[in-house]
């Protein structure tokens, strides 16, 4: 953002007024100060972009101001402790400096927002992928448990028939209830396995 501060005359220790000369320059020489804080702010963690350097800002400003002054160098000073940039020039040059810094700030903010949106999108996609992988692992675990349960029921049914069945594998009436229960358990295990497989394919 643009900040125009009061400038003091070092010799008289009095505040300078608009239009007053600086260092004996013509009355048209003015001084403006501009905050570079928003330009030099570090981007968010994970951002691909970097904050502008003081050199980048001053080089861009010097190039534009040089064009506006027929190739003459416009005095520019940066106060690193406060991130303030000081420009000495005409009223039009100070306005131009403000416009340049404002545009650089707008561009930097747009890059920060774009980077933040990209970072948030990547985080959301990563979280969604992790959730999907977790769900797949849980479903695969459930499917494998169902397959193992079916094998165990089949083995129990075979043992029951071998123990209580006749030579033709027929179980007496007293054992039919147990056979029915084992059959139902086997079918349930098969159904669970198929359901898990269908859900895995749908993800």
Summarize the structure.
The chain is mostly helical and 203 residues long. Helices cover 59% and strands 10% of the residues.
Which tags fit this structure?
203 residues, mainly alpha, 3-stranded antiparallel β-sheet, two-stranded antiparallel sheet, 4 helices, rod-shaped
Describe this structure in words.
The protein has 203 residues and is mostly helical. The protein contains four helices and five strands; from the N terminus they run βββααββαα. A three-stranded antiparallel beta sheet has the order 3-5-4, covered by helices on one side. The radius of gyration is 39 Å and the shape is rod-shaped. Mean pLDDT is 82; it is low at 1-27.
β-strand number: 5
- Uncertain runs: 1-27
Distance linking N and C termini: 49 Å
Tell me the strand percentage band.
Answer: 5-15%
Strand sequence of the main sheet, in spatial order?
Answer: 3-5-4
Shape field: rod-shaped
The radius of gyration computed from the alpha-carbon positions, rounded to a whole number of angstroms, is 39 Å
Number of helices: 4
Helix content: 55-70%
SSE string: EEEHHEEHH
SS-derived structural category: mainly alpha
Described by strand count, sense and barrel closure, the largest sheet is: 3 strands, antiparallel
Query: What average pLDDT do the residues reach?
Result: 82
Layout of secondary structure:
Layout: E1 8-9, E2 14-15, E3 30-35, H1 37-40, H2 54-68, E4 76-79, E5 84-89, H3 91-164, H4 176-202
Antiparallel strand pairs: 1-2, 3-5, 4-5
């Amino acid at each position: 953002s643009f900040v125009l501060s009061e400038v003091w005359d070092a010799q008289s220790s009095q505040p300078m007024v608009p239009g007053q000369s600086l260092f004996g320059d013509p009355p048209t020489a003015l001084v403006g100060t501009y905050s570079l804080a928003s330009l030099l702010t570090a981007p968010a963690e994970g951002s691909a972009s970097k904050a502008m350097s003081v050199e980048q800002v001053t080089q861009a400003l010097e190039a534009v101001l040089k064009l506006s002054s027929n190739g003459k160098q416009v005095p520019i000073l940066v106060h690193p402790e406060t991130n303030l940039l000081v420009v000495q020039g005409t009223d039009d040059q100070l306005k131009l400096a403000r416009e340049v810094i404002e545009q650089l700030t707008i561009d930097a903010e747009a890059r920060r927002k774009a980077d933040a949106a990209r970072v948030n999108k990547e985080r959301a996609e990563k979280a969604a992928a992790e959730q999907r992988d977790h769900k797949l692992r849980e479903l695969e675990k459930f499917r494998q448990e169902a397959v193992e349960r079916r094998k165990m029921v089949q083995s129990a049914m075979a043992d029951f028939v071998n123990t209580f069945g006749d030579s033709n594998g027929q179980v007496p009436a007293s054992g039919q209830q147990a056979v029915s229960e084992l059959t139902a358990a086997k079918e349930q295990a098969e159904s669970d396995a198929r359901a898990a497989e269908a859900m895995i394919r749908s993800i």
